[in-house]
Design brief:
Elements lengths: L21 H37 L19 H9 L3 E5 L12 E5 L7 H10 L2 E5 L3 H6 L5 E6 L4 E3 L6 H6 L1 E3 L2 E5 L6 E6 L6 E8 L4 E5 L15 H9 L4 E5 L12 H4 L4 H23 L13 H15 L2 H19 L8 H12 L3 H8 L7 H31 L23
Parallel strand pairs: 1-11, 2-3, 2-11, 3-10
Antiparallel strand pairs: 4-7, 5-6, 8-9, 9-10
Helix pairs in contact: 1-8, 10-13, 11-12
Length: 437
Amino acid sequence: MSAPTAPAPAPAPTGVPAPAAAGEDRRPRSDRVLRIGGWIAVVVVGLLLAALTAAVGQGDPLRPVPLDPTSTATSGSRAVVRVLEQQGTRVDVVHDADALDVGTGDTVLVDDSAGVLDRGVARRIARTAPDVVLVTNDPGVLESFDVDARPAGSTSSTRVASTASCPIPAARTAGSVTVVGATYDTDDPTVERCAPSGTGADTRWGLLRTTTVDGRVTLLGTTGVLRNDTVTRAGNAALALGLLGSGDRLVWYVPTAAGSDAAPSLGDLAPPWVPSAIAVLGLVAVAAALWRGRRLGPLVVERLPVVVRAAETTEGRARLYARVRDRTHALDTLRLAAVRRIGRSLGLPRSAHVDEVVRRTAAVTGRSADRVGAVLVGGSTDDDRALVDGAAALDELEHAVRRARSGDAGRASRSAPTGTPAEPTPPTTPERPGGRS
């Protein structure tokens, strides 16, 4: 007696999926983790880039601004402001062009060291301020103030230049100044010049003054007379007080990029976080393109099972010619096809000219060349009857050529010596004019 067999396992209930293999379960989970991790990395990189952009746009708040009238750093100008206030000169620091209020006896110091002064604001100050002290290297600003001078570089030396014979009273009173800062060159003989550097034709000037129809403009390149670390050297303090303290009020104007008479641009109206948001969106777009592009893969060319029979093409062209009633073009198409077939039957190359085909056809069929040429070349066709007659003439000429070639082959076989088989002539298949060539 045989041993009892173990019962077969019961099939899984319908609708309940079979448990997946361990590898198949781990693979989708790992792909999902990688996908989520990739998006987290994109977001983190975007946030870092946004923070970096914001930090660069705001600048370093701890870095002192040169010639800042409120700064006690070495590059600031707080010391000059304190001395002016002690001597009774009111100092108003202005950053907004709309807040500029210049009186009759006021002096205006325009500190355009950053090169952001708007041309319209410069022309407005030149018209309203009787005494302007200008710090700039922008040729456009110099032109707006009607100063005939050109920036000629800068010098960082602490050399002391004598100003005892300078035509500018404040510089002559100072006696000497340190030549450090920007220098200028001018060809206008009416411009007063002080604080020279260089010799001969290379002489450049650190202090210029010109008188315009609206007032006087002093171009101050030797900004060391305003800095906290150099104001006490030579006669720097005397020159600074003489230029800025001649009136009861000094307007110290430091322009900003936003202070302009021109209409604000789209970038000026946009919030400061917009560039960072655009950068983050760009990163997301690039990541999405890489993600989807990797999944799509390369393009695949599909071979479509489409075959168009030659007869369909011929019939389509025939219908087209019939629709436009272009009988001459239709007959010319039949003539070209007949010329190719006859030339092939006569053993002529494909490059043979139609005149050569006409001459060989006339020689083989015994007809005149003019008669053969009228059939193969012919002229225009005006009606359907002429089209049918032309097609029939082409058909008859092709048959004549084949008969002539068959007769030549038969005579050659009869004249061949006994025992030597004649060279077989390849069979030809009659073709209708206008058929496939």
